[in-house]
Amino acid sequence: MATTPLASIDWNAKLRHFLQTVAFCLTIAGLHYAFRPERTFAPGLVYSLSIGITTWALIDFGSHLFPSARQSGWPSGLWGKLLPVAGIASGYVIGTSIADTWFGWSTWANATQQHLLLSGFVSAVIGAIVTYYFYSKGKAAYLEQKISEANRLAAEARLKLLETQLEPHMLFNTLANLRVLIGADPARAQAMLDHIIAYLRSTLSASRSSSQSLEREFDRLRDYLELMTVRMGPRLRYTLDLPPDLAQCAVPSLLLQPLVENSIQHGLEPKVEGGTLTVRARRNADTLTLEVCDTGMGFDPTDPAFTHPPSADHGFGVQQVRERLDAAFGSRATITFIASRAEGTRATLCFPLTP
Amino acid sequence: MSTTPPTALIAEDEPLLAMALQAELARAWPALKVLATVGDGASAVVQALALQPDVLFFDIRMPGQSGLEAAVELADQWPHEGPDSKPFPALVFVTAYDQYAVQAFETQAVDYLLKPVQLARLQRTVEKLQLALAKPDPAAISLEATLVQLRGLLASGNASAPVVNTPLTVIQASVGNSIRMVPIDEVLCFEAADKYVRVLTAEREYLIRTPLKELTDQIDTKVFWQVHRGTVVRALAIDAVTRDEAGKTHLSVRGLKEKFVVSRLYSHLFKAM
User: Fold this and answer.
1) Is residue B245 part of a domain?
2) Which residue of B has its CA nearest to A266?
3) From residue A167, how far is each of A102, A254, A265, A299 by CA, in Å?
4) Could you tell me if B125 and B94 are in contact, meaning their C-beta atoms sit under 8 angstroms apart?
5) Which of A171, A232, A309 is the closest to B14 by Cβ?
6) For chain B, which terminus, N or C, has the lower number of CB atoms within 10 Å?
7) ipTM reported for the complex, 2 dp
8) Span A203-257, pLDDT tens digits
9) In this structure, which CATH number among 3.30.110.10, 3.30.565.10, 3.40.1110.10, 3.20.20.30 belongs to the domain A167-352?
């Protein structure tokens, strides 16, 4: 359990939480005084503030001790439940002791057992309510941030696809092939045009949501691969293998597109004899495994030996897929990329199944 | 040579486009005989040497060797002296996009076509080719003129490379477990060898993984001359340049035993004063 360096703490947020806690404590002291006007105001206020602030500090700063709280702001699993219980209990004891020191008496020695139980109970209830308030606010902010991150990455994926579509070699060679087919084989020309339309439209339809069904994802890949098959002729053979029961699984939209483009552009297109591209979806218990492999040049965009300028955008594809998986599934997703000159490349993505 | 029909070779990796170009050529120039169609740069060189056509149609982006690289290699290997030598073929580059700003060369020996190829534009190319081939002196499409243009194309292709402000002063080469710092002033020659680049000094040889292309962007091209696609030598260290019977040029470097081949593309650097 590594402690988080102070630098990573958002002090603005901490100040905001502190002020909110003080406001809660003042409200509680006020209510307390309203119901029991025969007592003096000061002791209630001091006890309320000291218990409240101690409890808040223990829980809010304590959460930084848990690595799982780094992103979401709250520890996961059992720790997430133990933290507020321990925080409220010790906050009550320490806070009461501090206030005792202030007034110079001892609650523990003087108060009746009944009074101790009552004030402990009241502290626990209020502590639980306030903790829940902070917890749900933090969670909402976290989810909102995750959604905007996913949207940003989806927009990036769309932009990347648009760039590929408008890349002059892709655009003009595709149109040149279409022009030939119009004269030579109008039926095939029409089929090719349909794929061009669907391929171009995919940038627009993908913009409506950051995730889409695996079936749609594979359909878009098929449009692209059909276009490339017309262009590359017998040099390109491809297989799209999607079992019917996985067709409706949701995946980040255009997730596989950059990997398939990498395989074509850097694996198969530059290889004289061409080769085979396979995209496969498999399910293993609750894990979805997607695989993109080719028998091409074995170009490894992550190899430091390829850091000269042209590879900057090649590496981008894999990096982008990694970021998107990370945003959607965090540490529950893995991506492995293997490239060898003898066997081509193989990218394997594993992440939890979301039907 | 007007008795035999003109011949051509097409190098284009996209089968439909190769087929279409051949069909359009049949309409624009019925007399032209397309000897072969190949799908990559290396085969283009082999077939061009074997068939010795009059015209070459090369796609610029092809798997393996690009059309430009294939043309340079062909120029190096073309038998241009001796009894059975033919003039170097007329070159027409076919490209999807004008990466090399080839418009500038439209009126010269090397022509280019933009894809999709349009009949009217193709007819202009054909007229130009016919005119050149009909000249009494076949050297009109001389190798020299072609080389000048290929150099121009290569240079304009490189112009897009980012300008490096800080030239390389030291080569970091790994030797066993250590990194040797080799001052650039000691380097006599860089030579590409498969996945590596050999760095030759008077004392010894180092292997580095940085591609030659990337190195040449970072060194002073007045100090180091490119003499071949895979060779860059220190100009002041060049001892002698000799030409053998086959027309191949070699150079020797002071301090090194091996000889280096000079590409025809760069042989203009070595003219007697």
Assistant:
1) yes
2) B63
3) 74, 18, 12, 20
4) no
5) A232
6) C
7) 0.77
8) 777 656 778 899 999 999 999 999 999 999 999 999 999 999 999 999 998 899 9
9) 3.30.565.10
